[in-house]
Design brief:
The protein is mainly alpha-helical and 230 residues long. The chain has helices at 2-29, 41-48, 52-64, 83-105, 115-129, 133-149, 154-174, 182-196, 200-224, and strands at 38-39, 68-71, 75-78.
Length: 230
């Protein structure tokens, strides 16, 4: 019985740690915990209505993902993102996602296999026609997320998600500053067409140019609006 009790407690602890991680990450990505702010471990635990053990595990996990800094006796600081940080993040995302596009195109998937990508591109077109940039951003995220997941490469998925999360606040902050992303929609559809044509080289190259352009637009906006730490 003691063993069963121990196992049950372990499962509960892991579950609470996961809950703490998800909630804390959402607060950071949603800018409810702005960049540069610092909190003691106990303050975060109270904010999450959790005990300190799952809170500490969540903080360490987020530190490993590059979203926060954890220091003994000082608690947690939400890490700011600079234009140089974003430049480095986009260099990594560009290389990894374009490789993902090539991998997916080489799988020989049919329309049913890439249904999630087709739906995302259609949603992006509808959102752009309605001038709804928030809906467009959600559909854009769906496209990129599903594209990477279609590779089935868990290490690649994990890496790209980590770097995308690091740049999330900046993308959301600059969303309404950027020009209307009509070219972005065209790029997504071109990548989709290359995947359906089982053309890895075209898919890889179109996606590489798309991500490079998106990164330049975003970083130029940061400089233009003097957004040096976000």
């Amino acid at each position: 019985m003691a063993s069963d009790h121990h196992n049950h407690g372990s499962k509960s602890r892991v579950s609470f740690a996961e809950q703490a991680y998800i909630e804390l990450k959402q607060q950071i990505l949603g800018n409810r915990l702005p960049a540069g702010t610092q909190f003691l471990e106990q303050e975060i635990a109270e904010r999450l209505n959790m005990s300190r053990t799952p809170t500490r595990e969540a903080m360490i996990r987020l530190a490993n993902e590059g979203l926060v800094e954890v220091r003994p006796r000082h608690g947690m600081r939400v890490l700011p993102i600079s234009p140089q940080d974003m430049s480095e993040i986009y260099q990594i995302i560009t290389a990894l996602e374009s490789a993902a596009a090539g991998l997916v195109a080489g799988l020989g998937l049919d329309r049913e296999g890439v249904r999630s990508l087709i739906e995302a591109v259609d949603k992006m077109d509808v959102a752009l026609q309605a001038d709804d940039l928030d809906a467009w951003a959600a559909a854009d995220h769906q496209f990129h997320s599903h594209l990477v997941r279609l590779t089935g490469n868990q290490r690649l998925i994990s890496l790209i998600e980590t770097y995308n999360d690091q740049g999330h606040r900046v993308r959301m902050t600059t969303l309404h500053m950027r020009p209307k992303p009509e070219k972005s929609n065209e790029d997504h559809r071109a990548v989709l067409d290359a995947i359906l044509a089982n053309d890895p080289d075209t898919a890889r190259e179109v996606h590489r140019r798309h991500r490079e352009t998106a990164g330049k637009v975003l970083i130029d906006l940061l400089h233009e609006h003097h957004l040096t730490h976000m």
